[in-house]
Write a structure and sequence with these properties.
Number of strands: 5
Bound molecules: shikimate-3-phosphate
Helix content: 40-55%
Number of domains: 1
Distance between the termini: 20 Å
Largest sheet: 5 strands, parallel
CATH superfamily: P-loop containing nucleotide triphosphate hydrolases
Number of helices: 7
CATH topology: Rossmann fold
CATH architecture: 3-Layer(aba) Sandwich
Structural class: alpha/beta
């Protein structure tokens, strides 16, 4: 199992994919997105997996994809917002690298997800209320999974990348990037 991966966890709309891609570019590392990989493996959209197999089926596939990712080393990995729901997933990520929680307030999460219809969990009559519930439920799980917490607000991806890199550097033993 790899040990030097960087996992980005956090809610839908926290900016994991955008920041992850930019971070990988800056650090000259390979970028992986677990949702993207799951879609590549199944050949259908996340929403279709939810439709056919339910959330349970999606979570099973998500855990399998995460384990596959953890066999590699040195990557930047953006994860789906619900990856922390499974205790095993939290443990595997902590063992396979550094876990960064991109924490954002409800308002910015809502701003960044309100016009997007690709997220099945928000396909409800009250998506903002649902987002608030999920944030409340998951906040302790993100904290439990994370080695580092970085606040993600309206800043540019470049600013967030700089923050994540500074936090990683502060945590690394002297001499290591
Ligand atoms: C989910 C978040 C989504 C995707 C799926 C479930 C969640 O990923 O994995 O729709 O449970 O929060 P993003 O966090 O990239 O939107």
């Amino acid at each position: 199992m790899g040990q030097s991966n960087i996992f980005l966890v956090g809610m839908m709309g926290a900016g994991k994919t955008t920041v992850g891609r930019a971070l990988a570019h800056r650090m000259k590392r390979e970028f992986v997105d677990t949702d993207r990989l799951l879609v590549d493996r199944t050949g259908v959209a996340v929403a279709t997996v939810f439709e056919i197999e339910g959330e349970e089926g999606f979570r099973r596939r998500e855990s399998a994809v995460l384990r596959e990712v953890c066999e590699h080393d040195g990557r930047v990995v953006a994860t789906g917002g619900g990856i922390v729901l499974d205790e095993g997933n939290r443990r595997v990520m902590r063992e396979a690298g550094t876990v960064v929680y991109l924490r954002a307030r409800l308002e910015s999460l809502w701003e960044r997800t309100r016009h997007d219809s690709s997220r099945p969990l928000l396909a409800t009559p009250d998506p903002r209320g649902r987002l608030a519930e999920l944030l409340q439920e998951r906040e302790p799980l993100y904290r439990d999974a994370a080695h580092i917490v970085v606040d993600s607000g309206p800043q540019s991806a470049a600013t967030l990348v700089a923050r994540v890199m500074a936090a990683l550097r502060a945590r690394a033993p002297a001499g290591r990037p």
